[in-house]
Amino acid sequence: RPEPKLEAEPPLPLDRQVGWAVVGLGDYAQGYVLPALARARRSRAVALVSGSAEKAKGVAARYGVKESALYGYDTMGRLAENDAVGVVYIVTANSTHAELTVKAFEAGKHVFCEKPMANSPAECQRMIDAAKAAGRKLMIAYRAHWEPHNLRAKEMLDAGELGQVWFATSDHHRPLDPALPRDQWRMKRSVAGGGSLVDIGIYSLNGLQWFFGESPNAVAASMQAPPDDPRFAEVENVFTAELAFPSGRRATISSGYMANKKRIDLWGDRLVATLDPATAYQGNRLVVSNAKRAEEILTKETSAAQFTGEIDHFSQAVTEGTEISTPGEMGLRDVRLIEALYRAARERRWLDLNPDMTVRGA
Predict the structure, then answer these.
(1) Domain named Gfo/Idh/MocA-like oxidoreductase N-terminal: which ranges (predicted)?
(2) Active-site residue, from 89, 142, 203, 257
(3) How far apart are the first and last CA of the chain?
(4) Are 71 and 46 in contact (CB under 8 A)?
(5) Catalytic residue list contains 115
(6) Which CATH code, of 3.30.1490.20, 3.40.50.720, 3.40.1710.10, 3.20.20.70, is assigned to 14-143+320-326?
(7) What is the pTM of this model?
(8) Tell me: the pLDDT tens digits for 238-269?
(9) 148-299+332-352 maps to CATH 3.40.50.12780
(10) pLDDT tens-digit readout, 105-137
């Protein structure tokens, strides 16, 4: 599959841009999604969906969204009457993704959904089936595929500039703060679907498969939750795993809710490519090094390009019928892999995987 191109051209005329409805107006939507839609070339925000009418009105005023295009979760069906909306972006808690996605498809809209896609493979399949039934497109928001430093690292790997790469490490950690609304639901397994693996370990799982161009065929894992910390009464703190790939490559991953670090290392026999930070919202860096030298690789675009890149990629797919780089099937694959990793951790043994990431012999 060809790598996505980052566009630097000026915005298209308004009548050629795809209208997006943003569902969920939390910190991420307001801090990154809506600003990205305001900068995008092919896309713009034309509707908002929120559980708070007051919040929606305030956000709408800042981004020029008409008050007539504000909806509640219980009135999302009215999106069917709004021809200005082509795409619905689901930016809500994991446990709500499937239900809201199905509602959007029933309203006749295409859907762009945050990761992880859902809390179970069955919910993911329901979303994929709903897309097919509606004749609409479904994409999962794996933004790092459009992050310039990640793109450059993959380009170097694929071109052989790193030499033979048989091993990679990916570590994603961030503090979990129960005082923040965005973290309160992440402490509830029924809502989040799991702990640090689901929340930020997903970057490691998806990223390594993207870099290597293959999925693991065997996994082993372990997880830890401090018994005296109420934050982890339902979800894990630290999760670690080893992944074996059909090519013979190996990788280790870790995720956790204490430290603040997001790093990927691709260990080549000529050069090691280090992304640190690897998947931050801004300020990502790429350094290649060996025992004799280290060099920072600069990119023309900043990390902000990852947000507009994924959004405009989907708008282009909707209007021109181009291929989606991160489709719903990829989201399903990754949720199956997460499920397999949790099982491996519980059973404390290696599990063999089928190509679709289901457990072999299960």
Answers:
(1) 19-142
(2) 203
(3) 31
(4) no
(5) yes
(6) 3.40.50.720
(7) 0.95
(8) 999 999 999 999 999 999 999 999 999 999 99
(9) no
(10) 999 999 999 999 999 999 999 999 999 999 999
